[in-house]
Amino acid sequence: MIIDLRTYTMVPGRLKAFLELYEREGLPVQRKHQGDPIGYFVTEIGTNNQVVHMWGYESLGDREKRRAALDADPEWIAYRAKSGAAGNVQHQENKILKSVSFSPM
Q1: Contacts of 57 (CB under 8 A, 6+ apart)
Q2: N or C: less crowded end of the chain, CB within 10 Å?
Q3: How much is the pTM?
Q4: Domain 2-97 carries which CATH code?
Q5: Residue 48: CB atoms within 10 Å
Q6: SS3 category, 105
Q7: Pairing between strand 89-98 and 50-57?
Q8: Where are the domains of the chain?
Q9: What is the per-residue pLDDT across 63-105, written as a single tens digit (0 to 9) for each?
Q10: Pair 6, 57: CB distance under 8 Å
């Protein structure tokens, strides 16, 4: 199993708007192609204005296939255009995590 760990740093004051738009328009499309996220969080202590989410995949090939289907979905394309135009995200960081032999996942 691999985990796609993403951290978005929001423009100050835009976190609520990002989450509302994503929950309403982005998440349903993403679930259609990727299933449920492992977790979706906001920072409480540490760097402020961050959204952290994790998606699980069987392999890099599985991730590539499901992401390609998502990226080709007209609903996702429309959501991404709307989200980008809203100017909510200041910075994005992605990490691919690979579990070790003794990991419970």
Answers
A1: 1, 2, 3, 4, 63, 66
A2: C
A3: 0.89
A4: 3.30.70.100
A5: 12
A6: coil
A7: unpaired
A8: 2-97
A9: 999 999 999 999 999 999 998 888 899 999 999 999 899 988 7
A10: no
